[in-house]
Structures are given as structure tokens and as C-alpha cells.
Write a structure and sequence with these properties.
This protein is α+β, with helices and mostly antiparallel strands. It has eight helices and eleven strands. Strands 1, 2, 3, 4, 6, 7 and 8 form a seven-stranded mixed beta sheet that branches. Helix 4 packs antiparallel against helix 6. The model has no long low-confidence stretch (mean pLDDT about 90).
């Protein structure tokens, strides 16, 4: 085992994240909660039958009602769930389940208690009308910019939140947690069960690609991920194509690196 001075490498992080995932999967099965692999985790299952080799976290998504039950019910002797709804010091608009025997240091974000983690995103409804949908997405991106203005340590070239960084302390004076809750309130405006289109609303890096017909979730299938069999939407090919285009094509070698700005250590 490495000490707290030496950061964990990608293989160690993947091993610990997989253990969290296994415990989370058992919890969802015991409590009859629906979840699916999402983002890079689903892509890894389809293309690599496990982690994308250079990836260092796990992405899951849950229909909003299941997600809200999960953040209330999850308990484990080693792993902890945090979300903006239940932890006033947490400023991310989606939940994470993390390993309390490890701790994480961000290079660009303000410190929050966290370790090796898995991301869990709520799935909400989207408007059917395209103009209404565009307005909805702009509000979500605006809320995410407000969060970033509070939690970022400094400026990053090209980021749109930088003017907020200058203005927010003098105008609204809200915490990152308050803005994260506002983003979730906006996301919940359209109900998962009654909308024809659904998707993750609390991540804005590719929010315009998250909107899919709910029919892709009509069937659940199971795909191999390492030694596990994990749920995926039956229409996973449509979902992945929206996010990544030709998703079976590997990126150029120079892009095969994690895009996260953190280091993780043993406590």
C-alpha cells in the first residue's frame, strides 16, 4: 500500500472505484433502484469490456426519483454518499459515492472532503419543443457557470464563468452549494416519467448531446464491465453516438489521458 505522500496511480484508483461500484450495485439491487452505466463507463463497457484504460472514475445515471431515494438511503461502513441536497458543504450538482479511506486533492477546485469516487447523475425530463429546450439548457449552463465561479481556485483560459468570478462576490454572495441546488431545481422542472425526452441535466460539458428519446431506456440490458455485469439502456448505441460520434474509434494517442485535475492518496 502506498503512503499518503505518494498519489495512487490509475490502476489503483480503478481497483478502488470498482469496489465502490460493486457495493453500490448491491445496494441498488437490495433497494430496487434503477441505475445505468453512463458516459465513459458505458463507453468502456462497450469498447473495452471494462474501464477505458486511461480513465480514473466511474459514471452512473439514475432516473431522478431513484436518485433522490438513493441519496437518502445509502449507507455503508466505508463508503459515503455526498450530494448538494444532503451536505451543505458540497458544491457539485450531482452525487458522488466515495471511499473514506482515501482523500483527494484538486488542482483547480477548492478543497472538499472526497476520495476515490464514482459519479452518479440524475436523469430528468427535457422539453419537447426545441426553442423551449434551448432556453432550458441555457439556464442550466448559466447555473453551472455560477457554481464554477465559486468553487474554482483561479481562472482557466477560455472558461465562460470568469466574469462571474469577478461579479458574484459583490452581487449575490451565494455559496457553491446554493447554486448547485438551484441547478438541480432547474433540472427537475421537467419530470422524468412524463417527458418524451430525457437526459442528464446536471453536467453541462455536453448537455446538448444528453437529450434522448426516453424510448432508449425502455429496455435494460446487461454488459460486462470487468468481472461484473452492469445495466445499460437498451438504446445505448444511440446514447453513445450522440455523445461521442464514432464511439468505437479510439482517440489519438496523445488524447488517451484522464481529463481530471486531481491526485488521490491513502489517508
Amino acid at each position: 500500500m502506498k503512503n499518503r505522500i505518494t498519489p495512487l496511480d490509475t490502476n489503483e484508483i480503478q481497483t478502488l472505484a470498482l469496489q465502490i461500484l460493486e457495493a453500490f450495485s448491491q445496494f441498488c439491487e437490495q433497494n430496487h433502484l434503477t441505475y445505468y452505466m453512463a458516459g465513459g463507463t458505458l463507453l468502456g463497457a462497450v469498447r473495452h469490456k471494462g474501464f477505458i484504460p486511461w480513465d480514473d472514475d466511474i459514471d452512473l445515471m439514475m432516473p431522478r426519483p431513484d436518485y433522490e431515494k438513493m441519496i437518502r438511503l445509502f449507507q455503508h461502513p466505508r463508503y459515503r454518499v455526498d450530494s448538494c441536497e444532503i451536505n451543505p458543504d458540497y458544491s457539485t450538482p450531482f452525487a458522488r459515492v466515495w471511499d473514506t479511506k482515501t482523500f483527494l486533492r484538486w488542482t483547480v477546485l477548492r478543497e472538499i472532503p472526497l476520495g476515490v469516487f464514482i459519479d452518479i447523475f440524475p436523469i430528468d425530463g427535457y422539453p419537447e419543443d426545441l426553442q423551449e429546450c434551448e432556453r432550458h439548457m441555457k439556464l442550466l449552463k448559466y447555473r453551472k457557470a455560477q457554481i464554477n465561479a465559486v468553487i474554482r481556485k483561479g481562472y482557466i483560459p477560455g472558461e465562460k464563468y470568469q466574469n462571474f468570478k469577478k461579479l458574484l462576490p459583490h452581487i449575490w454572495r451565494k455559496t457553491g452549494n446554493a447554486y448547485a441546488n438551484l441547478m438541480n431545481q432547474a433540472g427537475k422542472k421537467y419530470d422524468f416519467h412524463t417527458c418524451h425526452y430525457v437526459g442528464v441535466t446536471t453536467t453541462t460539458g455536453h448537455i446538448f448531446k444528453e437529450r434522448n428519446a426516453k424510448s432508449i431506456f425502455a429496455e435494460t440490458i446487461y454488459l460486462p464491465f470487468a468481472h461484473l455485469q452492469l445495466p445499460a439502456p437498451g438504446g445505448y448505441a444511440i446514447y453513445l453516438e450522440h455523445l461521442y460520434g464514432d464511439y468505437m474509434q479510439l482517440p489519438p494517442e496523445e488524447q488517451r489521458v484522464s481529463d481530471h485535475n486531481f491526485k488521490i492518496y491513502w489517508r
